[in-house]
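Subject: sequence -> structure tokens, single chain

Hey, anyone have a minute? Need the predicted structure for the following. Not urgent.
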Amino acid sequence: MTGSLRLWRCFSCVLLVSVLLCVTQIGNSQHAETTAGSHTRRMRATMTPESRALVEEAIGVVCTQAKLDPNSSIAIDEMQAKPSLPIQSPEAIAGAQRAQRLLPTAKKLVIASLRLVITEYGMGKSPILRRRVIQATSRVEAVTKIRPDMDSRDNASVFLSRPHTITFGTIFLAGLRSDEGMISVLSHELMHIADGDSDSLRPLVTAIASKASNLTGLDIRGQRGEELTSDLIGAMAVRSYVADTPSYESIARRLARAVQHNCVDLDEGDDDHLSPRNTIRALMALNPVLVRELINDREERPVKKNE
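Reply:
Had a minute. Here:
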């Protein structure tokens, strides 16, 4: 009887240890799943062949509209081939006036887009990042001036030593021939200002760059990530602007203006920038809603005669 009791106790101990090991393994498994869903280890974003085909189709819509739209933005490589424009040229003056008029709108759209993308990337609950977004918002709201510059040619830029000013090359001012195209570039530069001289939004930039790299297979790190994030905010701002300002032009045509300056023949990038066409490709991969809108609404609606 005593031997049986000892054997039963031994069996009970083995059973208890086995149960504890199972519970521990389940707990570790759940922790691993939680960790994989946290900021430390996310599942890699991927694209199906069908999604890749839709992205390429959307790029085709954008660059077709660039040829058909009388108010399309001039492609970057075409701008580069043009002679410099004097600041007092009619085209540069009209572009500068357009930029100054749209600056308040662009600031509001950038602030809203930044808050939206922070939430979309699961960073809205970070106290540190929330404080940084408040600071970024203040920097964006402080921008008040558009400065035309003949030497900047086909570029726009911000100098953080002059945080209230966006500098535009006169060729670029003349080449952005629509409100949508101008808002896209204004928003891009405002995003650089939002990031500030200490790269305060680096966690967001890194997350966007990582996702875009996984989706496209492109090498998007460092400054390339910041440029792409600024382009993404620009495209989001234009989508909001199009939604807020109804028009008899097609949605596809208006959305295409956000990125069609990248519809180049000479497609070259550098260490700090993706090539223009790869920029469109990465933006479309990050924004499937934009892809659907471009593909589903390509035909321009006729204007009613009574209106």
